[in-house]
UniProtKB/TrEMBL annotation:
Pfam families: Sulfatase
Superkingdom to which the source organism belongs: Bacteria
PROSITE patterns: SULFATASE_1, SULFATASE_2
Protein name (record): Sulfatase
PANTHER family given in the database record: IDURONATE 2-SULFATASE
UniProt keyword Metal-binding present: yes
Keyword S-adenosyl-L-methionine: no
Organism: Flammeovirga pacifica
GO MF: iduronate-2-sulfatase activity; metal ion binding
Cellular component GO terms held in the UniProt record: cytoplasm
Family as reported in the entry's similarity comment: Belongs to the sulfatase family.
Cofactor(s) for this UniProt protein: Ca(2+)
Start and end residues of each Sulfatase N-terminal domain: 11-343
């Protein structure tokens, strides 16, 4: 189960701001939560391409949005003959099914034996936006328009695409199969626009909302390239939200969307528990990245900081210990090899991620780092309580989470951390390929410029 834009504000991860996620929490109690899991890219397209190919963005050059049908093509040396995660199960004799947002849109043609298809758009949409026009203070030609908005809509859950996707999955759990099955279920919420019926807002009264940690001068000590990446005027800024009394309302809407999708997850879990497959099905719930709710000055993913990279990763089912939290770093890249091992299938030698099964059973130490990439040669390393970021121009950030969990103070220039920085640098990828021709991110001017510059210099 993939949940779009789901951050770590969940009950099973400590809860925050009156969050209510009873179904995700019960899934966590029945399995293992990796509380320090990180995406390979803080953006839907490249993150999902990484999960489904088992390869890092720095290996594939898929740094931006890429059509599902063009993740694998003759011109990409890394992916041209790669086997996608669902395809590997198909090759091993599984009947494969999928619906909703799994790859960036849905899935390349014929990846699934049985497809419920993509969900068109992020609707349903009201005739007029409630609060945010989608442009903000941005130059419309330069930045484009975000779907960001928030409010109670529509009237009933049955009008939501995620409800329909859950119905599709539940129906198939009621079928009999002559072979083992693989099912992918991709939920849209809490991706913007933050629209769900009013009853989900009612679960989160405004007076119970706690806003995210924020300092107005937080970005004064970060490199200029970090500011370029974080230049998102089409998104609401934290300062705007404070001045206009919308900060708690945005968080309320986000939490309402999370509670709604938690309910839909619960419906599917109930259907599985009442089916003949209850005792022999592995479940993995993951998100493609985190989501900032005011941290670092905005409401977006799009960054190499903790609040944008840390995301839920939960495994449950046969062979998985119950009610356990593992805090060592983990990567979404590990989903592919972990599922293969849990299902007793041969390892796929092309996987760049490491199976987490040994860590689950304490047979081996957890991976010592997790790496996130955003564009060409911009990387964040989470390891040993530190976050280290190195940008393409060599500029750096370093945060000591033991002393500074909210990453307010960049310690990259502090000589006392010289050894830590050197160790963290050793995890950086040795290969950084040019942007894939079909991969782009025109929503952000920095990445438009970077792709043109890098690809003109690396042929």
């Amino acid at each position: 189960m993939a949940v779009d834009d789901l951050n770590t504000w969940l009950g099973c991860l400590g809860g925050y701001s009156n969050t209510k996620t009873p179904n995700i929490d019960r899934l966590a109690e029945s399995g293992i939560v990796f509380s320090n899991a990180h995406c390979q890219a803080p953006l839907c397209g490249p993150s999902r391409a990484s999960i489904m190919t088992g390869l890092r963005p720095s290996t594939t050059g898929i740094y931006g949005m890429t059509p599902d049908a063009k993740i694998r093509w003759e011109g990409n040396k890394a992916t041209k003959d790669i086997t996608f995660l669902p395809e590997y199960f198909k090759q091993q004799g599984y009947h494969t099914m999928g619906i909703g947002k799994l790859f960036h849109i849905h899935a390349p043609k014929n990846v699934f034996d049985e497809s419920g298809g993509r969900v068109k758009g992020f609707g349903p949409l009201p005739k007029k936006r409630f609060v945010w026009d989608g442009f903000g203070q941005s130059d419309r030609k330069k930045y484009g328009r975000t779907s960001t908005d928030w409010g109670a809509y529509p009237e009933v859950d049955s009008l939501m695409p995620d409800h329909q996707s859950a119905n599709w999955a539940m129906e198939r759990l009621d079928h009999q199969y002559d072979q083992p099955f693989f099912m992918g279920l991709g939920f849209l919420r809490p991706h913007v626009p933050l629209y769900v019926p009013q009853k989900w807002f009612d679960l989160h009264p405004l007076d119970s909302i706690e806003v995210a940690p924020y300092q107005s001068n937080d970005l004064d000590d970060v490199p200029s390239v970090a500011l370029k990446i974080n230049d998102l005027p089409m998104m609401p800024s934290t300062q705007w939200a404070k001045e206009n009394g919308e900060w708690k309302k945005i968080i309320q809407a986000y939490l309402a969307c999370v509670s709604f999708v938690d309910y839909e997850i619960g419906r599917v879990l109930d259907a599985l528990e009442n089916s003949e497959y209850a005792d022999n099905t592995i479940i993995v719930l993951w998100s493609d990245h985190g989501y900032r709710l005011g941290e670092k000055g905005t409401f977006a993913k799009h960054a190499l900081w903790e609040s944008a990279t840390n995301a839920p990763l939960i495994f449950a089912g046969p062979g998985v210990p119950k009610n356990k939290v593992i805090s060592s770093p983990a990567e979404m890249l590990s989903i592919y090899p972990t599922l293969l091992e849990l299902c007793h299938l041969p390892a796929y030698q092309r996987n760049e991620g490491k199976s987490l099964v040994g860590v689950m059973h304490r047979k081996e130490e957890g991976q010592s780092y997790a790496m996130t990439t955003f564009g060409y040669n911009n990387h964040a390393i989470k390891s040993n309580g530190f976050r280290y970021i190195q940008y393409e121009d060599g500029s750096e950030e370093l945060y000591n989470h033991a002393l500074d969990p909210h990453e307010f103070s960049n310690e990259a220039g502090n000589p006392k951390y010289k050894e830590e920085i050197q160790q963290l640098q050793s995890f950086l990828p040795k290969v950084n390929v040019r942007w894939d021709d079909y991969s782009k991110y025109n929503f952000q001017p920095y990445f438009v410029e970077q792709k043109e510059r890098v690809n003109n210099s690396i042929q």
